[in-house]
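Entry 14. Ran structure prediction on the chain below.
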Amino acid sequence: MLLQEVIDWLQPQRGGVFVDCTLGLGGHAEALLRASPEVTLIGIDRDQEALGAARERLKIFENRFRAVHGNFETVAAILHGLNLSCARGILADLGVSSLQLDKAERGFSFATSAPLDMRMDQSAGESAADLVNGLTEAELADLIFDYSQERGARKIARAVIRERQREPIITTDRMAAVVIRALRVPGRWRIHPATRTFQALRIAVNGELDALKRLIPDAVSMLEPAGRLAVISFHSLEDRVVKQAFLRESGRCICEGEKSIGFPTQRRKATEAEAPDEIVCDRCGARKRVRILTRKPIRPSEQEVARNPRSRSAMLRVCEKP
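Output, structure tokens:
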């Protein structure tokens, strides 16, 4: 998604080390590698199945490509482990890959009956079924609302508790049916009523927002001078995290307007001569380490959306290390 835009902003024609933090099936990685014979690329993914598919796709670049099984939130540790001190460009394409969506058994979609899993890394962590059958009603309601802004979160949580008392909810179609009944949505829908709930479960299962919050400062620390970080998000919660993190890394305090009773802070505007990594705000941790290149998120063209409807919600933000 946003393939040409990623190439335009990351400028791989300059050569150097690039990192694809969400390798997936290797589409962005292949484009970056083809842009210049001087590009070396590290591809990171939590999904072993995706890594295998990407390795096969990119085997012609064997000498310039390396795939790593890991979580992008530790990108700095991963690169240090490969004896790399910096990168010219880092990309994170958030959300679910086509491989995960299209394989029913992964449990990301309610289109067919499948195990209610949703783990990007199937070798670790709790599944969506574990959360649905293990959380209290209040915990489940908070999870659904916090990670999707679903107004019917409490109704859904109440319905889940009733349903799981009869029998554990372990399949995607049964979970979707519970949501539909809870929301009492009649007839045909433009957007499936369970969409927000499944999004919330996926985010919670994979710790996506917390990992994203850790990724951006970690990635910025690994950029070389004039290096760029590009992040593609797919919903407002992700984009808000990216926007605030970019502002904080550019030296903008994001605490303005917030009450800080009992929490004294020192806030000031970063200057052009600000030393890198010098704290601007001791509450949010703002420090002037990058400059933001995209005032507003870059959206896919109408042509791309027509070719790939899944790209319609994609938002690209880019920053650069001075």
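Residues 102-206 form a domain with the DNA polymerase; domain 1 fold (CATH 1.10.150.170). Will compare against last week's run tomorrow.
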